[in-house]
Amino acid sequence: MAKTEWTKSTAFYDEYFRNPNPDKKSTHYCPGCGHGNVHKFLAEALEDFGVIDQSVIISPVGCSVFAYYYFDTGNIQAAHGRAAAAATGIKRAHPHSIVVSYQGDGDLAAIGTAELIHSANRGENITVLFINNAIYGMTGGQMAPTTLVGQKTTTSPRGRDPLNEGSPVRVCELLNSLDAPVYLERVSLHDVKHRAKARMAVRKAIKNQIDGKGYSLVEVLSPCPSGWKMDPVDSLKWIEEEMTRVFPLGVFRDRSNEIEPRQMKKYIANAKEIKEQLGLNELQEKAFSQTTPEEKYQNPAIKAAGFGGQGILLLGVGLAQAGMMEGYHVSWIPSYGPEMRGGTANCHVQISEKTVGSPVVS
Q1: Do 247 and 314 have their domain in common?
Q2: pLDDT tens digits for 259-284?
Q3: Last residue of a domain, which of 191, 225, 254?
Q4: How many separate domains does the chain show?
């Protein structure tokens, strides 16, 4: 008699050796969490399409921050909200890679809103998997942009009030107002039927990228029993009875059959074009192309100081990179305060013909 054997996708590690906990077979997710389902759908799609070795998964800051524990693919952990920006850079630098931006609602719909909208508006050929559980799960159950009106969280103990906190952000509807996205669908994990639909949506989003169609986003309504203070069964009922009323399921856009495969144009300027753009005359060009500095400028030790936002650290990076390109030993040490703008910023740069003994400029 034929026997069906269920095995774990080869897109997963056999053992999660990166996990610092003693248990190398289980994930870190809470019982009833939906991330495991979506991980499985993604892993199966990458394996079935034969693209595991060319795939790069961008992990967010959130409950799925440790996705690199589990996926035997390329992995990058981006700063909070910046997964779409990182995905854009990777896809443009390596257009044959399959790049997946895997993000939660606090990551994507709050601090990452700018990256979300502009990557979608450009029609980047990436796949975005958006896990909407209506709460900040990892950090303690705070109100998220997707928290429902009246829903109680640790930062909205009386329930979300639209007069104070606004209404839930509907990401699919928001992106559907843009011209460029190719595929937008909202799915749910609240029962077997809808999990099957979610699986197919993830596969379609990956296939669109393989075919060069453009930007695809799948929003997944996912349970968070720990954050919602519910048992797993009740959390599934809450998705069906409450979340789907605010976040209706369905395909908001599917132009994958209409769009021809596309590839971003890459412009590489030659030396002549650069000189023309810089307006260099013959004398300036000669000075510009001089590679041997005067003796007093050789092996410079440089301190650059100023305030945040002035480009001080970027200046140091540029000097160090220029030195490397000319074959010198270099070092760059930045120092800056926590302020986004206005705080002190300085850096030490060493450019030397010999090995740099200390990066500090005295």
Answers
A1: no
A2: 889 877 777 777 778 777 777 666 55
A3: 254
A4: 2
> Distance of CA 93 to CAs 85, 265, 304, Å?
12, 11, 31
**The last residue of a domain, from among 201, 225, 254:** 254
- The answer to whether 112 and 118 are in contact (CB under 8 A) is no
Look at residue 287 and tell me if it is in a domain.
no
Strands 250-254 and 183-188 come out as antiparallel
- On whether both 231 and 322 belong to a single domain, the answer is no
Name every residue whose Cβ is closer than 8 Å to that of residue 338 and which is 6 or more positions away in sequence: none
Residue 117 lies inside a defined structural domain of this protein: yes
Same domain, 241 and 117: yes
Place of tokens 């990458």: 46
- For the record, the structure tokens of 34 come out as 């939906």
Q: Which of the pair, 155 or 279, is modelled with greater confidence?
A: 155
Q: pLDDT above 70 covers what percent of the chain?
A: 94
Question: In terms of domains, do 232 and 303 share one?
Answer: no
* Residue 17 counted as domain residue: no
Contacts of 172 (CB under 8 A, 6+ apart): 184, 185, 186, 217, 219, 252
For residue 273, being part of any structural domain is answered with no
Its domain, for residue 224, covers: 35-254
The predicted-structure confidence for 165-192, as pLDDT tens digits, reads as follows: 999 999 999 999 999 999 999 999 999 9
